Amino acid sequence: MSEELFLTLGSVFTYLNCNAESRSIVEGEEILNSKHIIMIGITKESEDSKDVFALCLQTSALKSFPHEIKGNLFICNRKINISPFHMHLQSRTLRNLSNINALEKLSTTDVKCYWTEKKKVVNEEYEAKPLVEIPCFTTNVTDGEELKPEIKEDFFRKVLAACSGSALTLHLKGRTKIIYEESESPDGQPKLSEESRQLVGVMEESQFLDSLEISVDAFKLNPCCKNLYEKEIGCTTNFYKCLLAQQRSILWEKERKLRITGSRCYSIYTYAKDDWAKKTKEYFWPKKICNKYVEHGLKFEQEALDCYANNNNYKVLQLGLVICKKYPWLAYSPDGVVLEGSGKLVEIKCPYNGIETDAINFVHS
Asked: Any idea where the YqaJ viral recombinase domain is (predicted)?
C-alpha cells in the first residue's frame, strides 16, 4: 500500500447510505469543523490493510478522556469495517479524504502521551458556561418579565417531577433517599429515619471498637497537628450531616480528606517504605484519578445497586460518610447496607471489561 490512497466523497456517501443533507454527515462535519477530532493515525498495517485509530473529544464531556474510534481499511474494496451510523465516525471519514498513506503511525504510548499533552490545551480552550451566557441563546431569546420567586420554585419542582431520571434530579436527591426526614432537630442536626437510627446504634455498640484502646494523645502530636486534629477531625458536629451527605459532594470530600477510610486504609497498612512524609502528602492530597474506567464505574454504580436490590428483594440503605464517633479519624463510605436480616455491607464494582461480555462469562474469566 505504498501508493497514494484516497476515499472520494462519492464512496463515502455510498458506504454510509446517505447524502450531503443527511444528519450523520451534517453533524459529523460540525464535529470536524469544531476540531474535535484531535488525533488520527495508523496503529497497524500490512500489504492490503491498515488499522486506523482516532481520538474524538466527547461533546458532552470535553475534558474527559476522548472517544476512541477504531477502523480497518482494505485496499480490495476500501471498506471501513465498523458501523457507519455514528456521527464521530462520519467526521473521521470526512477527514480521511486526504491521502490515507500519509497518516502518522501511532503506538499505544503515543496515544497516552498525546492526550496527556492535549488535555492542557482542551482545558484552556473550553469552559463550561450557563445556557443564558451562550451567544446563540442570548441573541435569540428576549428577556421577559421577571417571575416571582414562588412561581420559579413551583416551575422548578414541576420540571424535576417531569424529569425524575435526569442527572440534575438525581444529583439533587443524592444518595439519601430513605435515611432522613426533612425537618431538623433543635441542635440543627437533620433528623434520621428509623432505619438510620438503628444503624447508628449498631455502630456505637460495636464490641470490636470497644476492644480497641487507641489514644491520640499517645502519639505526642505537635501543637499545629493537635490543633488541626481537634478542629477538623476530633470535632464530630457534622456527624449526621456527613451521614446524609451525597458521596463526592463538597462536604463529603472535605470530611473524608483527613481521615483513614475504608478504600484507602490498605495503602497505609501495606506501606513498607520509611518515607512517611511523602506517603502522608500522597494520602491527604492525592492526585485525582479520572479515566474511562473510573467514569464507567461512576456511570453504572447506581444502576448496579438498584439491580442488586430488586433482584434480591432487598431494601438497601444508602449513606454518605460514616464517621466513627469513638475514633473520629476513621470513616467509611459504603455503597449500601442491606436492612433485612444480616445488615450486610454492599460494595459495588463495575469492571470496564463488562462492556464486552456478560456477567457470567466475566466471572468465569
From this structure: 252-353
Is 15 in contact with 38 (CB distance < 8 Å)?
A: no
Q: What's the half-sphere exposure (Cβ side, CA atoms, 13 Å) at 185?
A: 9
CA gap 90, 67 in Å, rounded: 13
**Main-chain phi, psi angles of 192, to 5 degrees:** -90, 150
Taking only the tens place, the pLDDT of each residue in 23-40 is 878 888 888 888 888 888
Question: What is the number of alpha carbons within 13 Å of residue 300 lying toward its C-beta?
Answer: 16
Sheet bearing 49-56, strands edge to edge: 67-74, 49-56, 37-45, 104-105
Q: Is residue 285 exposed (0-12), middle (13-18) or buried (19+ Cβ within 10 Å)?
A: exposed
3-state SS class at 21: coil
Neighbour count for residue 170 (Cβ, 10 Å):
14
Radius of gyration of the chain (CA): 27
If one compares 179 and 227, the residue with the highest pLDDT of the two is 227
CA dihedral for 142, 147, 149, 153, sign (positive or negative): negative
Span 220-244, pLDDT tens digits: 888 888 888 888 888 777 888 888 8
Q: Give the C-alpha separation, 71 to 73, whole Å.
A: 7
pLDDT of residue 96: 46
pLDDT value of position 260: 92
Angle between helices 87-95 and 23-33 (to 10 degrees): 60
In this predicted structure, what is the pLDDT of residue 243? 86
- In the predicted model, what is the mean pLDDT of residues 197-223? 82
Is the distance from CB of 101 to CB of 2 less than 8 angstroms? yes
- Asked whether the CA dihedral 131, 133, 136, 142 is positive or negative, the reply is positive
Give residue 24's Cα distance to chain centre. Answer: 28
pTM of the model: 0.47
Domains and CATH numbers, the chain: 9-125 (no CATH), 167-364 (3.90.320)
If pLDDT is split at 50, 70 and 90, which confidence band does 261 have?
A: very high
